[in-house]
Amino acid sequence: MGLEAWYMDSSDDDQRKPHRLNPNVSVSLDELRKLGVFHWKLNADVYETDPELEQIRKEQGYSYMDIITIHKDTLPNYEEKVKVFYEEHLHLDDEIRYILDGQAYFDVRDEKDRWIRIAMEKGDLITLPAGIYHRFTLDETNYVKAMRLFVGEPVWKAYNRPADDFHIRQKYVASLQGS
Ligand code: KMT
Ligand code: NI
């Protein structure tokens, strides 16, 4: 049904491994929602003509989109980008990603600063709120094709942690109190 997510262990082992706790502690969609993380499941086989995707884009104002294929043979500066994506950071805008093929992990911090790993597969569309600390990694399959969506002109700038003085960060932290 939903996305699978879990709390991470703290080992320094390969970032592409699952890093589950033992025993596993899973995280529900409800818990993710409280962090401002939202998810849709779509049919990625028809992404080019999908009315459901169209409706989400219209409702949410996702006017911009492009497609990124993350694989060593297709992405320029692959090694460096993989490293940068895994540095803990935030953005001033929402990060919206739709997995068209392959799979990957998005890690987000919970309200107590613990890492949650979100396993994204084909058909998963996720939104991470502006101001949340997060990172991204391929898994052991080493391949993902994803649509990047954005409200208006895209701004890819990432601010690595610590970025606590940004208004958007303070706004995000304040939003957790009420939820
Ligand atoms: C980001 O901001 O970390 C990314 O764009 C990750 C790659 S997109 C699947
Ligand atoms: Ni990001």
UniProtKB/TrEMBL annotation:
It is found in: Cytoplasm; Nucleus; Cell membrane. InterPro entries: ARD (IPR004313), ARD_euk (IPR027496), RmlC-like_jellyroll (IPR014710), RmlC_Cupin_sf (IPR011051). It is a peripheral membrane protein. The lineage of its organism: Eukaryota, Metazoa, Chordata, Craniata, Vertebrata. Its cofactor is Fe(2+); Ni(2+). Fe(2+) binds at H89, H91, E95, H134. GO terms for molecular function: acireductone dioxygenase (Ni2+-requiring) activity; acireductone dioxygenase [iron(II)-requiring] activity; iron ion binding; nickel cation binding. Ni(2+) binds at H89, H91, E95, H134. Keywords: Amino-acid biosynthesis, Cell membrane, Cytoplasm, Dioxygenase, Iron, Membrane, Metal-binding, Methionine biosynthesis, Nickel, Nucleus, Oxidoreductase. The gene is adi1. It holds the Pfam family ARD. This is Acireductone dioxygenase.
